[in-house]
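INFO worker-7 received task bundle
INFO bundle size: 2
INFO processing item 0
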Amino acid sequence: MTEQPQPATTAERRTRLLAAAAVSLRGLSDITDPLGALFADAGHELYLVGGSVRDAVLGRLGTDLDFTTDARPEKVQELLSGWADTIWDTGIEFGTISARRKDLILEITTYRAEKYDGVGRNPEVTFGESIDDDLVRRDFTINAMAVRIGRGGAEEFHDPLDGLSAALAGIIDTPATPQESFGDDPLRMLRAVRFVSQLGFGVAPRVSAAITDMAEQIDRITPERVRVELDKMITGAHPLEAIELMVGTGLAERVLPEVPGMRLTIDEHHQHKDVYQHSLTVLRQAIDLEDGDPDLVLRWAALLHDIGKPATRRHESGGGVSFHHHEVVGAKMVRKRMRALKYPKAVVEDVASLVFLHLRFHGYGDGAWTDSAVRRYITDAGPLLDRLHKLVRADCTTRNKRRARRLQQNYDDLERRIDGLRAAEDLARVRPDLDGNAIMELLGLPPGPLVGEAWRYLKELRLDRGPLARDEAEEALREWWAAHVADR
């Protein structure tokens, strides 16, 4: 009988993680070795710290590196001068000097020991005296590990709060009590949600309980900072689990109430799930359709596409439920919420447009659309068309396999028709067959509103009939103008 391999012990797993981190750090030796020598020769300590060590342990170290040191910011600037390619001091108020060396961005912060006033989230910064002072103030134990960087690069792993065990267990916990940590900086509650998404970790029970009890404290945080964390959350590898945590603790009620607001609305297919769960499924399926990097606009549109349903729910005779015009109401709600969170105008409009358009396809019906209707679909979607394709496909969550197959086949057919029209016509820029100058010359008009009316008529004609020869366009314009004058 073949002997089954035994699972690795905790000690063995710790050793493997540390070995993996050492390998990651050796890949940066051309930066860390000379940097460590600069500080050591000047009599100062230097540690790689926080998220950089966490990511090295987890095998996902990036190009942004965080360090901490006992050197004061002015001394850090002096040491980096002549070695770094670029230095900037925008964070010097908080003891941070940033620099770029080759392809790496470095942030070097003087040891800190912070005090909070319980009102805002910005601490009164005082400089600490030791690495332990610095680590104990950090948000989570997985971010409270450090590696001493000396003349020879990485020299010593420092983990006074046992963050490595938390990383092994996949648990997000706080160095102090979560009540103390979140009271100091309520944004840490959203950071916990974000790390669930980015790392696939869970939160310690006491952390979840504290977020539930303290969710209203997030109101102390500016909308801009909330938005940053929400974006990192939704573009992470595990956003569904993070959203479930945010909703389950009540945090979503404070920052994105439209999402938990969908939980009580039964969907139109009566599949014993609410619109909230349907929306999570659509988000997951939209992620599966992404072509590469996380698509922020697509993911927000997938999560929020049905937020108008609670406001439009109607109980019909016979026991049915309808949500007429929920896409219109939902688009308005998206604009209101995303503006409140200070999103850039372009992002707000893109997400709202996708929400508004996501039901348009359901009028297609086995290829019944005319070419004019297909052109309008393309034109209305504009540069969002590829995202709209993904959103519509992701929105198919029916358990009826025959119906699901028919919906996907119908959309396949629509995409083929779109490709055909794109190949035959310049649909990226649908414009009238006559420009403003030609309109004025043909009708004898000066510049003014009537030229705009004529231009819009020709654009609608272009959408209905496709490209026209010039003489056809001129004849149509004359006929329109004769009727227009007769009506005045």
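INFO item 0 finished
INFO processing item 1
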Amino acid sequence: MNFHQNPITYVAQVNLKVAQLQRAITFYKEVLGFRVMNQTDQTAHLSADGQTTLVTLEQIEGAIPKTYPTTGLYHFALLLPTRADLANIVNHLLQKGVRFASSDHLVSEALYLSDPDGNGIEIYADRNHSEWNWRGGEVEMTVDPLDFSDLHAEAGEKHWTRLPSDTVMGHIHLHVSNLVETEQFYREGLGFDVVCRYGDQALFMSSGGYHHHIGLNTWAGVGAPSPKEKQVGLKAFSIQFPNEAARNKVVDQLRQMGASVSQEGEFYQTKDPSDNHIKLEVS
């Protein structure tokens, strides 16, 4: 089952603020294998298939480095089509001398690294959804060591040259300041379902029975402040709705709960209680 197309509501892309555009482009092309769709002096749109933007980079004049703790991006996650693709990028990262962490989450296997501005990135492959274990409406996820020996057996003959064309934005994971009010915003406002809780520190939400499209945590501290405007990091992320009616319903829900929603022509934007900016888009 494809959890990143109609009629599912999902995270489609992220917009990142960076200090040096060319440095960031070099990383995303040479380390991860993105294609640059178009570029200006200040921005670049990155794609896996050459047609769909997954990541937008925007150079900020007078940019300041990431500070901690603040709300904002914990990581964005690129979902690879197959386990073999994950095995191949492991070999590629090792050959490039890139440091990364890893984990087996039961529902998926994942690698973790950061770009030159400290933006967290997850690269993962899902296990078949028939293997996910659901109990009481929640999916079982854990943080176990990744079995690299078993993964290596999946590696194909070809070397990693670029992201597979059907790579998608799998999910986004955010630092927030208050989990209770943030859950209400994403559940009652945006319409996502809670599918897993990690104590009172983190929760995971999705549409259509996915293990998660949105991750939220208070690991930066309850009451963590928003990042400064010129700080590198997340500028916004996009949520893709299956049709105009679904988006209009969400816009109404957000306004009824007192959330800020702005409109420019056909485009809608909102922000969660921790000042994470969100674009509301239609397929």
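INFO item 1 finished
INFO post-check item 1: The longest helix spans residues 83-96.
INFO post-check item 1: The domain at 10-282 is CATH 3.10.180.10 (2,3-Dihydroxybiphenyl 1,2-Dioxygenase; domain 1).
INFO worker-7 idle
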